[in-house]
Amino acid sequence: MVEQLSSSDSRTTWAGRERLAGLLDALESGLVERRRELRMALLAALAAEHTLLIGPPGTAKSELARRLQRAFGDVRYFERLLTRFTVPEELFGPLSISALEQDRYERHVAGFLPDASIAFIDEVFKANSAILNALLTLLNEREFDNGAGRIACPLISVIGATNTVPEDEVGEAFLDRFLMLVPVVPVSEDGFLALLAMPTGVNLDVRVAPLDKAERAALAEAAENVALEPLVGFLLAELRAWMVAQACYVSDRRWVKIVHVLRTAAASEGRSVVSRWDLGLLPCCVSADAQVQHAVSDWLLDRLGVGVRCLPERLPRVVEAFEAQLLAEREANDLDYDESGRLRFSPEALAGEVGDAKGGAGALRMTAARKRRYGQTHIDARVGQIDEALSRMCDYDAELATQVRDFEAFEAASLWIEPGFLRLVRSGLDASGARLRDLRARLLAARAGFEALPRLLPDPGTAPDPVPHPVLTTD
């Protein structure tokens, strides 16, 4: 079972994000371009989940695991590199000779994985299927089959590392035990220069004030009381359907764990509700494939900051419908009659065409037209329909402004979301605001255009059919 962290273990409540902010700053000291990897691993551990680091050798994966262990006070740490020659004794402990003498098949687990709270297992997929199958129960249930019985394990979190993820059935089942699937790449050019400037050797002397059992219990209790913003559930369901359409399988168990880690993230920052912005954690939770993670990130950026039912793509179509109607009414012509009911002609309005020899005697064709005029009732109807659209657009503008304020508050307190993702969300919100202002200006111009149409006196009192356009709702 997961290490028991009940409220009876502590008289205190969760201290809040500042406690974690200081801890993260200390843990990241001396690391180059490993902020995201370390924070995802710590968040997973706080939610009692596991992390898989996927990347080439020499990218500080083991160092990340050792630093994670320093975040927890009074815990046992276990580390092992697996190969195809690894035997169970190396992970689970040697067989007990005294137990064998009594016809019991038991292991001495003290000092080995079943006795550890934080563990790092390098090249996790290189072990044979027997070891991987034994690890399945240990990782998921926190129990180990030792002889004829099962023993509870104090395991908080395992950091696994691998160069590649196999696609066999056992490998997929084992992969599903790791909630955070974090690609690790070599440092960038700028990061490389910073890496070369570091003192020789890895800085292991990192001084941190680790989280004790009481603090972790308080955070776990706070996470249980965190609710989901309604939009979060909607987006999770939509993403699940999208993943199915992309032939990317995500197990029901993983979706449940994703919600738990979202609640933990919110609670750790002192919030009682999971926000839509917390969904920036999802790419690392749904797939081990870096390309799929980028696609999920793009999918989220297309939706974050957007009202569920007042979709932005409707707004240009509404404006375009009014602009097209205005153009048609401006260019419409009517025959011009005088007071006696006869066509009124002017030299400019007189046009004649004489048929050629094949047409026989020529026929004079005469037309007289003027720009169509509109009654006040007609113009009032058009302006009224635009005013209704402007009102709905103002509602959306207010909703967008609320989302911007919400995002700004989230961004200021965020511990876990990658800054690059937050910058893209901010850019999307700014672009939505600019787009909305442009569409509003165009709609106001169309309104002025309808008001400037030539008047027909007296007003016949005839109202036109409404301009057809997509319905705007903000409900």
Write the layout of secondary structure elements.
Blueprint (H helix, E strand, L loop, with lengths): L16 H12 L6 H12 L4 E4 L6 H10 L6 E5 L6 H5 L4 H5 L16 E5 L6 H13 L1 E4 L2 E4 L4 E6 L6 H7 L4 E4 L5 H8 L16 H12 L2 E2 L1 H16 L6 H17 L4 E2 L8 H4 L3 H14 L10 H18 L1 E3 L33 E3 L4 H38 L5 H33 L24
Parallel strand pairs: 1-6, 1-7, 2-3, 3-6, 8-9
Antiparallel strand pairs: 4-5, 10-11
Helix pairs in contact: 2-3, 6-7, 9-11, 14-16, 15-16
Can you describe what's shown?
- Residues 47-188 form the AAA+ ATPase domain.
- It comes from Azoarcus taiwanensis.
- This protein has 475 residues and is α/β, with parallel strands linked by helices.
- The chain has three domains: 7-217, Rossmann fold (3-Layer(aba) Sandwich); 225-304; 314-347 and 367-451, no CATH class.
- It has helices spanning 17-28, 35-46, 61-70, 88-92, 97-101, 129-141, 169-175, 189-196, 213-224, 230-245, 252-268, 283-286, 290-303, 314-331, 376-413, 419-451, and strands at 51-54, 77-81, 118-122, 143-146, 149-152, 157-162, 180-183, 227-228, 273-274, 333-335, 369-371.
- The strands form four sheets. The protein has a five-stranded parallel beta sheet.
- α2 packs across α3 (61-70).
- Mean pLDDT is 85; it is low at 1-11 and 349-364.
